[in-house]
Amino acid sequence: MSATLTTISQHLFIYRGAVNVGVIYRGEEALLIDVGDGSVVDTLNECGIRWVDGVLFTHHHHDQASGTSRVLAGGGWTGAPEAERALFEEVNAYWNDPKNRWHVYHFRPHNVLTEPVPIHRTFMDGDTLRWAPARITALHTPGHTDGSMTYLVDVDGQRIAFCGDLIYDEGKILDLYSLQKGFGGLTDYHGFMSAWREVVASLRRIEASGATVLVPSHGNVIRDPKGAIDLLEARLHAVYENYLSTSALWHYFPTLLQEQSPTVKPVAVAPSLPVPPFLRHVGTSWMVQSASGRLLVMDCGSEEVIHQIEGWLASGEIEAVDALWITHYHDDHVDAIPQFRQRFGCPVIAEESVAQVVSNPDAWRLPCLSPWAIPVDRVVKHGESWRWQEFTLTAYHFPGQSLYHSGLLVEGRGLRLFFCGDSLTPTGLDDYCAFNRNLLGEGVGYDFCLQLLHELQPDMLFNCHVDAPFAPSSADLKKWREMLQQRVTLLKQLLPYDDPNDGLDPYRTRG
């Protein structure tokens, strides 16, 4: 990557490479703030700087510190936020901990280094350091990460704030997935963008410090802090309220969402309907019972489902279990499938996007992932239909709650029933976890799903966590799609990418 230099003052410049590296220097020695990929070394040599005395890290993310060994090959000390010390020094413990691999509902921390970086000195809020012509004050500024530190550098009559990734440019932020954080007793999994207020509070604290220049880790040097922060707050607020207006969480946690933003209401609430008499619901499993007493089961997240079915078999309420359909890969839907297969010996059927994950979980790093590899006996494609008893079944790729998600249309007994996994509730979309890969845009993600429902016109929808079916109208589907389109427009203002998914999807590689 090509780099440029931005001079801030006589003793401070910014190396703008993979990240913005602050270079405070005097003669042939320097103190750096972050190092990025280490390519700053070549520029330091060209500038006549022969010795890096030390490095201060704003936060633990891999892109901030991966080049440390190159930068400090000749020696020198490192400093980091006290709260994140272990995320530099004990990365092997992080990566080897099964809690960070399987059944993951937490996303702070993420983007952790793959090689440890020894830390010689740590900083807490208010700590100070004098280095050559500069006086440096540490401010704890959480938001992008919980332990993020801003370094206020007083040098050459200016106060410059190295603020990590709290901001990217005027009114812009690097990404939204780093803002995934639990709230109100919920885990990070349900907390899309919930750290946005922390980001704003941290930036306001920096503004109050009297800093005249903001240097983010990514993006442009900002010389009007207040204007940049004001615009960012307004844009973050607008996106968050748009997201809340279509959220499935209104169905599960209405009080918590009302506390998040008292002025927002769901733009549509679909009516609930009675459960057809030939369906059963246990845990996260919906089941279709044929007239002959045979069962098609959808998902098996716990052994409770198995025990219930065993009881029905014993009492003669059902005759047999014919097949298991997997809606998506999440652990609360698949954890007990190995036992289910062993007990009932029936085939497992999955749409190809789901099958690739559940059959080989070791190849994936995703939220709520179960470690058990599940053989899929029949892999079906989008739009593929088949007969089962008196019903016609049609599989669909349904990339709503997750990119690796399916839907199943069941037609029979005079009804068209669509089993949408966890993708919708009566109040909207289950897009509360960016790490599930909820892509935005025409014909992808939820827009694709809502258009499909408009075309299929099912009589009712079924969510695995909702006891009653519901029936969004064409107007409801249209409202949700319109809000998604509006969100794309808002995100193009907030994020520094032509495609907002570059700031929404943590697994994408940016050009």
Kindly identify the CATH topology of the largest domain.
Metallo-beta-lactamase, Chain A
CATH architecture of the largest domain: 4-Layer Sandwich
Number of strands: 25
Reported for the largest beta sheet, the result is: 7 strands, mixed
Determine the number of helices (DSSP H or I, runs of at least 4 residues). 16
Mean pLDDT: 97
Helix percent reads 25-40%
- Spans of at least 5 consecutive residues whose pLDDT stays below 50 are none
* Helix vs. strand class: alpha/beta
Please give the domain count: 2
CATH-defined superfamily of the largest domain = Ribonuclease Z/Hydroxyacylglutathione hydrolase-like
Oligomer: single chain
CATH level-1 class of the largest domain: Alpha Beta
Distance between the termini: 11 Å
How big is the Rg? 26 Å
Report the sheet-strand fraction. Answer: 15-25%
